[in-house]
Amino acid sequence: MTKAKVKLIFQRVAILLLATFLTSCDRPDKPHIGGYLYFTSGSYIGQFSLGSGKTSILGSVGDGKAVQLSEYLDNKLLLTVNRHINRQSVWQIEEFDIRRGYSSTLFPGRMVHYLPTSQKIVYDDGSELTATQLFPGKRERSTIYERRSRAPGKVVSLTDDELLFSFDEEKSRQIYRFEGKDNRLTPLDGLSAACSLDGAVWVPDAGDEGRLACKLRRDSGASGEYYLVSLDGIADRQLSLPDDSKFRAIAYLHDHKILLLIENRHNVFDGQEKMAVWIHDINTGVNIRIIKGNYFGSHIIYQELYEP
Predict the structure, then answer these.
(1) N or C: which end of the chain has fewer CB within 10 A?
(2) Which residue has the higher pLDDT, 37 or 295?
């Protein structure tokens, strides 16, 4: 081998090593994220571990269809289940035991959400948004909001004792803030004009009093991009997400200061819907895809503490 060839080989190796080094410098480190995604798929309740990448089927609701779920007590979830009883469609709130894999019916209703501080279960009974507390042998109820139609609604957790909700009623898109401790209801006109609650997540570390990560309404000229918006409806800044993807925020992880998002993609070859999990750093704007190619069903929540 001539000296010229040896020199050329060393130059090429040096270039490859330099390229590898530069690529590794540009690639952000993926943080270790624990916790689980819980999801519904037909009658089944599934669990996906963000730490190990393992998917488990925890149980089912029998002949019903689980369409929504919410965090509840230790090792339990609240479910909205649709069943057909005597040829009629019936909506029920059910308590699902994660360890044992079965559910038990609590009462009729849907769109359920739990407020741990005041220990209130908030749900839609078909005519009213209701807050209820369960005690041994009895249940106390109070009306939050009287509905004008049977239009579907959206609920977003604000704190452990506050939530945002809205109903698609008669072209109205009013967003309300509900505080569980004193049953206080406040209309948020500015936020109602700016945001949709579909796929919205509260980010307490953004701004001085927190911001809602939400998609701006299309009539605001924003075409559904995610922004950080105050409860007054003032949009601070747009989240720098990849332009060619469809994202839905599902949780904010306070310890890591990151937003957890689901990306939906349709596979043109097999017609299957595939999902990926992304994290978005609120401070730096860095996006990292941590899981790809999975399917998590129709409704997804994140829970951090449960260990099987």
Answers:
(1) N
(2) 37
